[in-house]
Each structure stands twice: as C-alpha cells, then as structure tokens.
Amino acid sequence: MTTADRAWQALADWQPQKLTELVNANPEARLQALVRSVADIRFDFAKTHLDDAAIGILSDLAAAQDFAGRRKTLFSGGIANPTENRAAEHSAERGEGSPESVHVAQALHQRMRMMVDAIEAGAFGEIRHLLHIGIGGSALGPDLLVDALGRHSNRYDVAVVSNVDGAALDEAFGRFDPAYTLVAVASKTFTTTETLLNANSALQWLAEAGVDDPLGRFIALTAMPERAMEWGIDETRILPFNESVGGRYSLWSSIGFPAALALGWDAFADLLEGAAEMDRHFRLADGADNICLLAAFADQIYANRLGCQTRAVFAYDERLRLLPSYLQQLEMESNGKSVSFDGKPLARQSAAITWGGVGTDAQHAVFQLLHQGTHLTPVEFLVAREPDHVLDDAHHEALVANCIAQGAALMTGRASEDGARAYSGDRPSTTILLDQVTPRSLGALIAFYEHRVFANAVLLGINPFDQFGVELGKEMAKGLAEGTIEFDPATRALMQAALGE
C-alpha cells in the first residue's frame, strides 16, 4: 500500500462530527483555523465538516501526491499537462510564471492594449458595438467579466455569442447596427466548427448591410495566427496568445479582449493584478494556510468520504450570476476524469457535478431539496459587503440576511414531530464574502477557483489540463452532419426525424 493509499484509507476511516458540535465547541479556535482573508476576500469554511483530524489526513495525502512538486512545476512552466506534453501557463499571463513566458505574455498584452487604443482612436471608424464569437472557454470568461463589471459602462455594447443555434446570433444582429460593429472571433485553434460557422454568418451580415471591407471589421483572438490569416483576417488584426494557455484558463490572455475594450485597460490590468495576488498566495502558502488547498480538502471530504455527487454554488449578487456557469466548465472539464495522472483507472470519485444559481431566486426554486431532500449537497454562498445600486439599503440588507441565514439553517436544521416540517440540519456550506465586486477582487476570485481545481487534481492524482472527453462528441457530430460515419439504426432514425433526411 502506497503512502497515498494509506491516506485515502485513513480518510475512509475518519468519522465526521456534527457541524453544530464543531462550531460550538471552541468557536474562536474554529474561526481562526477555517477562515482566511486573501485579496480582500473572506473565505469561511467554519460550517464544513473539516476538523483537525481530517486536515491532518488530507495534508498527508497532499504530501504523498507531491503537491509542492506539482505546484512548482505549474509555476515554473514545466510539463503540468503530460498527456499533451505541455505546460499550463495561465498564471504567466498574470506575471507569475517562468520569466520567459511572463515576458511573452506581457508583450502580447501590450499588443492587445495597442489594439484597444487604436479602436478608441477611431482606426476602425466609429465603433459602438462588439460582437464576440467563441464557445466554451473562449466565451464563458469574457461573458462573465463584461456582465459582472460592465453594467455601468457606456463605452461599448458587447454581445457574446457561443451557441451555434442561429437564434443566438440573430438576437445579437437585432441589437447592433452593422455600420458601427466590430467582430472578435475567439478560438484557440481557429478550427472550432461552431465558432467559424457563426463567424461566417457574421461576415455575411456585414456584407449584406453594405459595410465596406467586412473582413476589415474582424479581429482574431487565437493561439494559431496562421489559421486566422488563412480564414482571411489580416495579421495586424490578430491578437495571439501562448499555446500553453488552456481554453478554460484563457480569459487573462487576448481572449479577454472584450473586457479590456468594454471596461478599459486599467480595469483589465486590475483584474490581472487581483489574480496575481491569489497566485502568490497559492504559490507561497503551505498546508491548511493555503485557502485553495483547504477548499480542496473540503471538496474531497464530501466527494470521497461522504458520497456527495454535486456541489452547489449560489451567488447572492446579480453581478456574479454567470459565475456558476463559468465554474461548471472550469471544474468539470478540468477534473471530470476517469484515469489517474499515469493513465491508470481512477479508484475514486473525481470532480463533483457543479451547479447553482442566483440568490434569492434559488431559495424559491431549489433550496427545498437542499434543506429536506435525501441528497447531501455542500453549498457555496458568495456575497459582497457593498451593493451595486443606490436603492434603499433594505435591498442589500435583505439580500445579505437571506444568504447568511441559509447557511445557518442548513447547519442547525429544526426538529419537529411532523416529518414534513422537520429539518435534519448538519448540511455543510461555505461562504465567500467579497468587500466589493471589482476587477481586482473578481480576478482573485477566479484565480482561487483555478487553483482549487488544480489542488483537487493533485489530491486525486489526475491531470486537470487535458479534455479529450470533449472531442468524441464533436467528432461524431461532424461525421453525422457530413455522412462520413456509419451510425446505429436508432441514431439514423432520429436524424431522419429531426431533419427529414
């Protein structure tokens, strides 16, 4: 039995205490051990089942899985993604990585800044709208940033279109005047079928509207500039990024161009600095003092000791409404694996299924299951001290009260002789409290989740940086559309029913 196997066995033998007992036994010590503040964000794990014994066991597991070594590889630009023989250098985009990669990232950021300056100076004529076309990591990150931080900006209207359903693109066309529209096409490889189909339709829309030189309105955001040039975009309008930056980790690169344009360069720089602050914490803090690793400890307790298959994230802030969708890709595409780092079948659960929504809406929709359902689901609450409006303080006070009360109710429950009115309690939650939702704090928050994903991957012994599971469905969809793959009778019948073929 390996050292890691012994740690997993110790976790299996560990018996959790009731949450109320943990919280009430020594409140001061518990808050000191399980509450951390990084980059003006308070991370509160006091209402989880983490205790000294569990933290000790999982710290041993981290050591056995060479957490320190794999973290060093990540930040040094080593091969963090062995199945594809690549580094994973998203942190270099924030200034934390190998000196050479940091230098390249800074140079490419300067190129992007020059593009933003040129647009603002009128190099493309009068621009009022930006249509950003991408999918997955090329869309979710920019969409989150613009929606969260650009609500009071009147710089540019931005529409992020990812769905190949023409209705999504048609909606954007209805909002924008083609005479004043710039199009950004975001694709790491510049071969993504859905993205290029949408890009061709956008090109046709500009041409049919009588725009002179429609291709001249296109900007490419890609790690493969030569393919963008083959598609027809001039080299001067291509914003490259490092091939070692994964798609779902790419919002810090030129993929973040819509945010840099819509929010202004200073805001984008603050976003990078906030992420860099979390990078420094993750790189330098050890053991349970490392908030990203501590979060992963809790994740492993629930997934691999208490059998929780899902983790729910609820943003009690309208600005963060897209965060659960962003985290779904980040967490499930990264750690949704069935083999270990060395290719052997995984002996335990990998990523939990991430889901969630916006408070207080979710309280009237899904919280019934969280409080009284048969599933044990760890819940994560996000809330800010300062609101994003100038309405009566009662709005924010009610919002915060609801958020905090939900965590307390999940933990304590309520006994009743009437089973329908009984709440079992002992249901865990984490609360992440931001001082404000700013570019800096949002950058730090997203980096926290990135490093949490990596820490979980190390504990599990898996590679979080490949995503081969995405490819099979794409390959078969292409074969189905082109008739190049022979499908089973049920699939052929369904295709005929759907398209009349």
How would you characterize this protein structure?
The protein is an alpha/beta fold. The strands form two sheets. A six-stranded mixed beta sheet has the order 1-2-11-10-8-9, with helices on both faces. The longest helix is centred in the first third of the chain and has 22 residues. The protein is globular, with a radius of gyration of 24 Å. The relative contact order is 0.14. The model has no long low-confidence stretch (mean pLDDT 96).
Descriptive labels:
501 residues, alpha/beta, Rossmann fold, 6-stranded mixed sheet, 5-stranded parallel sheet, 11 strands
3D shape: globular
CATH architecture title of the largest domain:
3-Layer(aba) Sandwich
Which regions are unreliable across 5 or more consecutive residues at pLDDT < 50? Answer: none
What is the helical fraction, as a range of percent? Answer: 40-55%
Content-based structural category: alpha/beta
CATH superfamily of the largest domain: Glucose-6-phosphate isomerase like protein, domain 1
Topology, element by element:
Blueprint: H1 3-13, H2 19-25, H3 27-34, E1 35-38, E2 41-44, H4 52-64, H5 67-76, H6 99-120, E3 129-133, H7 137-149, E4 157-161, H8 166-175, E5 181-186, H9 193-208, E6 218-222, H10 225-231, E7 238-240, H11 257-263, H12 265-284, H13 291-304, E8 310-316, H14 323-335, E9 353-358, H15 367-372, E10 379-384, H16 393-412, E11 429-434, H17 439-460, H18 469-482, H19 489-499
Parallel strand pairs: 3-4, 3-5, 5-6, 6-7, 8-9, 8-10, 10-11
Antiparallel strand pairs: 1-2, 2-11
Helix pairs in contact: 1-4, 4-13, 7-11, 7-14, 11-12, 12-17, 13-17, 14-17
